[in-house]
Design goal:
The chain is built from eight helices and six strands; from the N terminus they run H-H-H-E-E-H-E-E-H-H-E-E-H-H. It has helices spanning 2-12, 18-28, 44-57, 89-106, 137-140, 148-153, 193-201, 223-227, and strands at 71-79, 84-87, 109-120, 125-135, 156-166, 172-177. Strands 2-1-6-5-4-3 form a six-stranded mixed β-sheet. It is elongated, with a radius of gyration of 26 Å. It holds the Pfam family DUF2358.
Length: 230
């Protein structure tokens, strides 16, 4: 019986992905002193693992329990939207669960999607752009919203941005929740302060804030110009 069990385990081993095996090994070694890499930067396969877990768990925000297996027990959440910080896996679970319940209570239709998930090896982070689609009870009174196709096309949305900091063991030790994506245009020395201000307040889009002077077309001339023309 023991020999058969070992043979069965050896047959199942090749089906497991190399990335999952490495992440499980690194997570199991996180508690040992010699192999602890919590103060080191992660490798790319560990960031890819966090990326895949976020792809799976973000759409479940307002549907079911989230996946917390890739978070450290002392994980910190910095919610910059309401200026609140929580530390500890159970505190983080309670914090996110509160928003999940409130969303389901106050909105008849609410869902969350991941717009973009980008692992960055330089700083050991995984950056997530997310969007919440919702329908208020007031708009739900519209009979057209009872049709799913019409409701999905006319949902309002709320965009946000999160940064997940990963340690050398492949575990998330801190993540942020903020309203919008950080403005990186301030690092571009080619733009003036007026241009950055215009982009920030939404007067001009980021790609169009060039303040190029546009000359009027030649056919637009006043009557006075024609009167004094020889």
């Amino acid at each position: 019986m023991l020999v058969a069990a070992r043979l069965g385990a050896s047959r199942l081993t090749p089906w497991a992905s190399t990335s999952s095996q490495r992440c499980l090994a690194s997570g199991a070694a996180g508690g040992t002193g010699a192999d602890d890499r919590s103060q080191q930067k992660p490798e790319m396969f560990q960031l890819k693992h966090v990326q895949s877990r976020l792809e799976h768990t973000v759409p479940l925000m307002f549907r079911e329990r989230l996946d917390y297996t890739f978070y450290r027990k002392d994980v910190i959440v910095d919610n910059q939207i309401i200026n609140v910080q929580r530390q500890g896996i159970y505190e983080v679970m309670g914090h996110l669960s509160t928003f999940s319940v409130l969303g389901q209570v106050f909105f008849p239709h609410i869902e969350m999607t991941a717009l973009n998930i980008l692992p960055i090896l330089d700083d050991g982070t995984v950056r997530l752009r997310w969007r919440i689609h919702y329908l208020s009870f007031l708009r739900a009174l519209n009979l057209m919203n009872f049709k799913r196709d019409y409701r999905i096309k006319n949902l309002k949305w709320y965009d946000g941005y999160s940064v997940f900091h990963v340690d050398g063991n492949g575990m998330v030790y801190k993540f942020t929740i903020q309203r919008t994506m950080p403005d990186e245009s301030s690092f571009n020395s080619g733009k003036t302060a007026a241009q950055r201000l215009a982009e920030k307040i939404g007067v001009l889009p980021g790609a169009a804030a060039s303040f190029v002077k546009v000359e009027p077309p030649p056919e637009r001339r006043s009557r006075r110009d024609y009167q004094y023309k020889d």
